[in-house]
């Protein structure tokens, strides 16, 4: 065997392994979302939110395998709008840097991440089965369409839109779908008063919420680092190191800034805001974690950490009830991350970034609004007032997350 062939096979194996391990890190983010959301909802809704997170991941893996990946990547025209719709993941291309199966695995955990954003925003009042039906539609069709337009080489890619690891394609898309659902769903009972009062509804388990945030932070190294796609040469290995450094720096800066904003605004260190500050920094840097210098990455994270606090408060003021702050973290900060890419990347333009952001939002929000509306008119999307008062765990699952705290009559 020639030396060049051996080196080529070793690089193929290394890059495939890198892809798979990065995908495994992103898959672990599903646990992060589950723990974060379980901590930020009330105890009576914990089992149900865990069920949603596990089932949406399983649904995403199935629908994306059967049709979603094909829509996004297989046999599509460069610069096009409509994909060629087929089944399964196609065949391995000659001369590929990594295996097709590893590419699918890395992509499927991204689509599950987009759907995980939705579960927290609609928590504590949405019907379980309506949510699961929507999960299938988003992961099979809605997400893959905009994924083709961008990462799949469609018209947004041709227009110069740049989103390295998915601030817009994954996170803002998930938040757009969530916003459409929340608008049709309405707020939780007791969240807002008739005269505009805002009544906090505390989460049940701050240790779980904190654990979930750390898991997401950890998984994000695969999310951003794996998006470099290769690690088998000097340039790519160095780039992955830079991506890890910037990702970590942005998250840390986001948490610190949110902490200081809370202290100066309310005189308290609000843990939930600090957690969301770290996640906001991660979302914002995801659009381009490679180009910024370390100090620029700190600036990106710090700005996002402040932005998310004011965004969460702002959505509450207009009575958009988001129990975990997902629309602010993933939507507002995802948009912010997209729009600041040209500040650090000379190849990106504000015009192309704005165009891409508008198209992604319009498509995902519009398509989701139609699907939610159809579900509302048929299955219904909101539980009854009595079911909401009793809790989703008893109604949907029949299992209490914390049975030792339930009084027995």
Automatic annotation (TrEMBL):
All residue ranges annotated as the Ammonium transporter AmtB-like domain in the record: 18-402
Keyword vocabulary terms for this entry: Ammonia transport, Membrane, Transmembrane, Transmembrane helix, Transport
Organism classification: Bacteria, Pseudomonadati, Pseudomonadota, Gammaproteobacteria, Vibrionales
GO cellular component: membrane
Family membership: Belongs to the ammonia transporter channel (TC 1.A.11.2) family.
Protein name, UniProt field: Ammonium transporter
Molecular functions per Gene Ontology: ammonium channel activity
UniProt keyword Protein transport present: no
Domain of life: Bacteria
């Amino acid at each position: 065997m020639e030396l060049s062939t051996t080196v080529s096979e070793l690089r193929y194996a290394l890059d495939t392994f890198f892809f798979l391990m990065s995908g495994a890190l992103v898959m672990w983010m599903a646990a992060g979302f589950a723990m974060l959301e379980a901590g930020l909802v009330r105890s009576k809704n914990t089992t149900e939110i865990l069920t949603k997170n596990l089932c949406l991941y399983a649904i995403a893996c199935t629908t994306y395998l059967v049709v979603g990946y094909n829509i996004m990547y297989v046999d599509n025209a460069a610069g096009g709008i409509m994909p060629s719709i087929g089944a399964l993941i196609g065949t391995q291309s000659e001369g590929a840097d990594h295996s097709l199966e590893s590419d699918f695995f890395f992509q499927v955990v991204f689509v599950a991440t987009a759907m995980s954003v939705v579960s927290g925003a609609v928590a504590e009042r949405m019907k379980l089965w309506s949510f699961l039906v929507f999960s299938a539609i988003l992961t099979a069709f809605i997400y893959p369409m905009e994924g083709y337009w961008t990462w799949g080489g469609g018209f947004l890619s041709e227009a110069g839109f740049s989103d390295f690891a998915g601030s817009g394609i994954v996170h803002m898309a998930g938040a757009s779908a969530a916003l459409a659902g929340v608008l049709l769903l309405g707020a939780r009972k007791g969240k807002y008063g008739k005269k505009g009062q805002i009544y906090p509804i505390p989460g049940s388990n701050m240790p779980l919420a904190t654990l979930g945030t750390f898991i997401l932070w950890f998984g994000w190294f695969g999310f951003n680092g794996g998006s470099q796609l290769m690690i088998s040469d000097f340039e790519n290995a160095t780039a992955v190191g830079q991506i890890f450094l910037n990702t970590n720096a942005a998250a840390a800066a986001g948490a610190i800034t949110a902490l200081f904003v809370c202290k100066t605004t309310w005189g308290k260190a609000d843990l939930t805001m600090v957690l969301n500050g770290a996640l906001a920094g991660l979302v914002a840097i995801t659009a381009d974690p490679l180009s910024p210098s370390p100090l620029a990455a700190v600036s990106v994270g710090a700005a996002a950490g402040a932005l998310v606090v004011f965004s969460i408060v702002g959505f509450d003021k207009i009575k958009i009830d988001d129990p975990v702050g997902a629309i602010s973290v993933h939507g507002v900060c995802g948009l912010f991350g997209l729009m600041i890419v040209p500040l650090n990347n000379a190849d990106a333009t504000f015009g192309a970034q704005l165009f891409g952001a508008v198209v992604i939002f319009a498509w995902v929000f519009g398509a989701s609004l139609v699907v939610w509306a159809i579900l509302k008119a048929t299955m219904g999307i909101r539980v009854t007032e009595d079911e909401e008062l009793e809790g989703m765990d008893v109604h949907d699952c029949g299992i209490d997350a914390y049975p030792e705290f339930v009084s027995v009559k």
